[in-house]
Amino acid sequence: MVVRIKDAAKLFGIIIISCCAVFVCTLFLNFSLDLMLIKDEITTPDAMALYDAQLMTGKVICTVSGGCLLITSIITLFFYIKHYIDAHRKNLGILKALGYSNFKIASEFWVFGLSVFIGTLIGFLASYALMPTFYSAMNKEGIMPEILINFHFELMLFTVIIPSLVFSFLSVLYSFFKLRLPALQLMTAVNKNNYKSKKHLEHRKENLPFLKDIKRTTVKSRKSLAFFIAFSAFCYSAMIQMTFCMNDLASDLFAVIILTIGLILSFTTLMLAVTTVINSNTKTIAVMRVFGYTFKDCRIAILNGYKPLSYIGFLAGTIYQYALLKIMVGIVFKGFKNVPDYKFDIPAFFITLISFIIVYETVMYCYSKRIRKISIKEIMLDNI
Fold first, then answer.
1. pLDDT tens string 51-72
2. According to DSSP H, which parts of the chain are helical?
3. 185 to each of 181, 190, 284, how far by Cα in Å?
4. In 3D, which of 128, 133, 147 has the Cα closest to residue 26?
5. What is the pLDDT of residues 153-204, one digit of tens each?
6. CA distance 130 to 182
7. How many C-beta atoms lie closer than 10 Å to residue 348's C-beta?
8. pTM for the structure as a whole
9. How confident is the model at residue 7 (pLDDT cuts 50, 70, 90)?
10. What letters, b where the CB count within 10 A reaches 16 and e where it falls short, cover 91-127?
11. Radius of gyration, CA atoms only, the chain
12. CB atoms within 10 A of CB 9
């Protein structure tokens, strides 16, 4: 078997992202479905206004947050598959040389969909565990009749079962296209894209200093990792700044949910990206050390190229959270009593920015210590 089931269980990134997506969507969709069951019991204008606002809130959050996390899950899945194929090129090339077709090999990549099933199932079950507290918070003023928690199988179908099947299909399809290489090219571990990029670097007119050249090449060689680092900063910026506003706009429970999901997504994607960056550049680091470059030089060349992208992601997260909250307050809760007008929170922005700089630089410094543990001897022996 090319891909084993335990390989799918190692995909922590996609498990966590899909878990967060389904957790949020199930929480709000299940509440919306149960809320619609009591519509006939609502008699007062205030209760009807709250009813409409909460239904719209569920739609907006599931569409925006769920859609964003869905796209991220797909990108993460493709990243894992590409990384797996790159790490097992020789074995896959041997199978092709033995007569196995691309589809035969790719069909075994369906197990990558199991990571999505694990994540979505955990998120689905976790949402039901929190629902009693969530339902109470959504109707804490007692304006609407009591809302009972019901199990909706169709919700499980569309948030757990169908996504798992779709991601398994995407895994097979993407693997099929990535395996359309000659067997010899796979066995000799020659990457056509890397060859083109090196050729381009050799012929370009711009003559950069070595360290700057390595920094730029590192970022360009793995664009998916650049996305993950930017997304990590995006999650941190958006979720932390939203947390500051929850006391006025929602409840403490909302603040805890947003803060927890934001931190989990941020640290998961950042650590996934940085770990892969270092592991995929061990040979470059080894060569730099042989030629006398310090560990600081290696860290700057390999990791610092991603720093501008992290701040771009932070800025995007700031814009995203402002736009989302402005829509929620200005459109969803328009005309609803006791809802304050939302304005951009400048102190929250600077607090979040300062904390982000501290956290990001600390994580990068801790991970850069792994560079010291890279054995030059082992890497050189691998190339013999």
1. 777 787 777 778 777 777 788 8
2. 5-9, 12-36, 45-61, 67-87, 89-97, 102-106, 113-138, 153-156, 162-178, 183-187, 192-203, 210-221, 223-249, 252-280, 282-290, 295-303, 307-327, 346-372, 376-382
3. 7, 6, 22
4. 128
5. 998 998 899 989 999 898 889 888 888 877 777 777 555 444 444 444 444 4
6. 51
7. 17
8. 0.76
9. low
10. ebbebbeeebebeebbebbbbbbbbbbbbbbbbbebb
11. 24
12. 13
Q: What is the structure's pLDDT at 198?
A: 47
pLDDT recorded at residue 2: 56
Mean pLDDT along residues 243-255: 70
336-339 long-range contacts (CB < 8 A, ≥24 apart) are: 336/49, 336/50, 336/53, 337/46, 339/249
Q: What percent of the chain has pLDDT over 90?
A: 10
Fill in the amino acid letter for 203. Answer: H
3-state secondary structure of 189: coil
Q: How far apart are CA 181 and CA 192, in angstroms?
A: 9
Rounded mean pLDDT of the chain? Answer: 78
Amino acid, res. 374:
I
**Neighbouring C-beta atoms of residue 275, cutoff 10 Å:** 13
Tokens of 208: 């950069």
Kindly indicate the confidence band of residue 126, based on its pLDDT and cuts at 50, 70 and 90: very high
Residue with tokens 């860290």: 299
356 burial via Cβ count (<10 Å: 0-12, 13-18, 19+): buried
- Which residues make Cβ contacts (< 8 Å) with residue 292, sequence separation at least 6? none
Question: Cα 364 to chain center, whole Å?
Answer: 18
Chain centre distance of CA 18: 9
